[in-house]
Specification:
MetI-like fold, mainly alpha, 12 helices
């Protein structure tokens, strides 16, 4: 009997994988290390210090940009997750029909189109609305981020729905449960891990978005990533490293918490 093919057992695969991880995480480790540099250089180590973390925490622009980023990401993630859940239900809890593949492609289009193309389209669309309404608040950024994050939330939710056994839903319907009761008491509890994963992914994607934010935002609406980009154009200090390190820790913490919650609910 022929042995089963396993890519992990191929010669050199572990070495190549470790090398790729090394290239991926080495720049991150350098950023984290120099966040604790006592001097002003981002290339010469001058001693250990929390100086730049304290300075970033005391910087009102950083605080305002951080709060604004969390606000936008939270609202955008919720909107994207709700829309993605409805789209996933509509494309999985139905019989195959002509045009279903097109709907899959249409929902996932932002993943395939270059982000700058989406950003330019949103800029043109919202600029007309701004002129017509005179409103230039954060609502545009929230809607733009939500639109971009929908496919990121859709993928884990759809994957969860496709892996669920529909026997329980069918049994509930046979016991005269209404479609809403089936969804609320059977589908939704089983779907929660996928919804949580989609929400988490959408939040992280929105939190670190730069391109769409740069095109859609108005004056005084810098998020933390766009603030950091602006600082990099001027003078680079370890304060940027400190902000990046805090950003990295927050992202890892969010992913870890939601992973643990999702695993418990699986």
């Amino acid at each position: 009997m022929a042995s089963r093919f396993d890519i992990r057992r191929q010669t050199g695969f572990p070495t190549v994988a470790l090398f790729c991880f090394f290239l991926l995480y080495l720049p991150l480790s350098v950023v984290v290390i120099f966040a604790f540099n006592a001097g002003t250089s981002i290339a010469v180590w001058e001693g250990f210090s929390f100086r730049w973390f304290v300075q970033a925490w005391s910087n009102q622009q950083v605080v305002d940009a951080s709060i604004r980023s969390v606000q936008i990401a939270s609202v955008a993630a919720v909107i994207a997750t709700v829309a993605a859940t409805m789209a996933a239900l509509a494309t999985t809890r139905t019989r195959p029909y002509r045009g279903l593949t097109f709907k899959y492609a249409f929902i996932n289009q932002p993943l395939m189109v270059p982000e700058i193309v989406t950003a330019v389209a949103l800029l043109i669309f919202f600029s007309r609305i701004k002129i017509a309404t005179g409103y230039s608040g954060l609502g545009y950024l929230m809607i733009a981020h939500a639109a971009f994050c929908i496919p990121f939330a859709y993928l884990p939710i759809r994957a969860r729905l496709e892996s669920m056994d529909t026997a329980l839903e069918t049994a509930a319907a046979d016991l005269y449960a209404t479609p809403w009761q089936v969804f609320r008491r059977v589908t939704l509890p089983l779907l929660w891990p996928g919804i949580i994963a989609g929400l988490m992914l959408a939040f992280v994607i929105s939190l670190d978005d730069v391109v769409i934010t740069e095109f859609v935002k108005s004056a005084g609406q810098d998020t933390l990533p766009t603030y950091m980009l602006g600082q990099l154009r001027r003078v680079v200090t370890p304060e940027i490293n400190a902000i990046s390190t805090a950003f990295l820790v927050l992202s890892v913490a969010i992913v870890t918490v939601f992973f643990l919650i999702s695993r418990k609910k699986t």
